[in-house]
Amino acid sequence: MSAKSRRHQPGPRGGRRAFLADMGMGFTGLALGEMLWRDGICRASETVGWSPPTGEPNFRPRAKNVIWIFLVGGMSHLESFDPKPALTEFAGKEIGETPHKDVLTASFVEDNLRIVVPDDANGHIRHKLFPTQIGFQKRGQSGLEISDWWPHLANCADDLAVVRSMWTTDNNHGAQLQFHTGRHVLEGQFPTIGSWVHYGLGSLNENLPRFVVLGTPIADCCGGIGAHGANYLGPEHSGVQLGVDPKNPLPFAAPGVDVYREEQRGELDLLGKLNALTAVEYPDDPAIRARIKSYELAYHMQTAVPDVVDCEAETPAIRSLYGLDAKPTETFGRQCLVARRLVEKGVRFVQIFHGSNGGAGAWDAHGGLKLNHANNCGQVDQPIAALIQDLKQRGLLDETIVVIGTEFGRTPGTQGSDGRDHHPFAFSVVMAGGGLKAGIAHGATDALGFHAIENRHYVTDVHATVLHQLGIDARRLEIPGRKRLAIDFGEPIRDIIA
Fold first, then answer.
1. Cα–Cα nearest to 84, from 448, 451, 452, 453
2. Cα radius of gyration rounded to whole Å, the chain
């Protein structure tokens, strides 16, 4: 049999690849899928007339990177970025007893979402209005109103674009998954915004993942790993979880304590020799070279990742800026600082979770809202402000989009004596950098903060804005056999694009 005919026999090729896969997974499973995809080895079977993205933007991008901060549990828009004096003015009254009772009958048929059914025949909602639990001030030259629970971020007011007219459809914490995928949890799991960025764009640093997850992901009750997963795009496009301890940032990819780097080097050298032997028989086969390359890259990640998460390399002033010297801010501050270091090294998408607690999330203030939000804001306010300031002073904010989101808002009415319930009908998202306008509030809710009534935006409009700024046309990321709904794509929020 000729060498040419032997190259088309399926047996030896499959066996060799399986053997090498077993060898490689001994020291890295974390980055292998991504690297094999990048080298064109483990992509979906070819479809006539279709090819995967090239890794290049579809049009001129305004940004290169994204830092996506998610506050788990549902932050109150009414005590953060959407001031409503009427809540205090009419505190203790039922909505139907106020001049704003018309909010009871609001309906948005185009969204297939009917809002609020009165609790009794008189059209009353039995919950009484709960006064705003913190003051608001106009901040910066723009006069953007931000609550007093965010004093550090308030100093960045002139860098922020606040979208006050967000809405979603899940009134429970499945909205956490919905915020990241655009789909209700009952519809199943779908690719997340981070995975679409990963799928559409190439790497800026071959030694680091394109999509990194910091902090504890959301609980299984609310979507679990699906909130940073890739679903039908394939696991190679899922977020890679990293720790911020430089001694153990890759717990699932680091070699065992009894394995020396020299031993790993020896494994790679052996694979190289095997490759050389088979190259004689398969001289035109690029797959083996690409697979060896992927192992080499994963090997180098074991050095690159600990270096990039080592915050001790920063000056004392920078560590203090992020709050690493104070217990309330140390953990989240370290994650924000690592996020800056990651995008500085070329990581495309960094997703940071705050408030994951094994359940609904720390921001879920059904009771004790004042203490709850004061404590949570105290943990994240300084680090987020430091991140924006640090990116700006390094010239990175222009090319990095920072998103601060949560799954929904909180009700204008009280729950219990001192809390607010889930509220998907209106909430706020804050964005900065990456070619977006600064010092503006876009959209509006009614006088009680009950409904988004002006320039309403479903959660995928945030996705579309991010993708647009990265130069990605989401409709061109076609997957054969997969039909996406129009709402899955969203529309860029053009009023906040500079």
1. 448
2. 25
**Dihedral sign, Cα of residue 140, residue 146, residue 152, residue 153:** negative
CB 150 within 8 A of CB 141: no
Assign domain 65-249+312-496 to its CATH architecture: 3-Layer(aba) Sandwich (3.40)
Place of tokens 């999330």: 361
- The CA distance from 4 to 74, in Å, is 62
Inter-residue contact 362 to 216 (CB < 8 Å): no
* Alpha-carbon 340 to chain mean position: 15
List, as own/partner pairs, every contact residues 481-489 make where C-beta atoms lie below 8 angstroms and the sequence separation is at least 24, other chains included: 482/232, 487/182, 487/458, 487/460, 488/182, 488/183, 488/190, 488/460, 489/460, 489/464
Alpha carbons 203 and 385: distance in angstroms, whole number? 27
Helix ranges (DSSP H) in 282-326: 287-308, 316-321
pTM: 0.85
Place of tokens 């910091």: 214
pLDDT tens digits for range 418-467 = 999 999 999 999 999 999 999 999 999 999 999 999 999 999 999 999 99
SS3 422: strand
The pLDDT of residue 447: 95
Q: Identify the residue whose tokens are 């990819």.
A: 253
For the chain, where do the domains classified as CATH 3.40.720 start and end?
65-249+312-496
Structure tokens at 256: 């065992």
CA-CA distance, 237 to 442, in Å (whole number)? 32
Please say whether the beta carbons of 106 and 139 come within 8 A.
no
Q: How far is CA 90 from CA 63, 65, 84, in A?
A: 44, 44, 11
In a 10 Å sphere around its CB, with 0-12 CB exposed, 13-18 middle and 19+ buried, how is residue 480 labelled? exposed
Tokens, residue 82: 């959407």
Mean pLDDT of 349-368: 97
Q: Which of 468, 460, 454, 403 is nearest to 164 (CA)?
A: 454
Phi, psi of 157 (to 5 degrees): -50, -40
Which residue blocks in 322-368 are alpha helix, DSSP H?
327-344
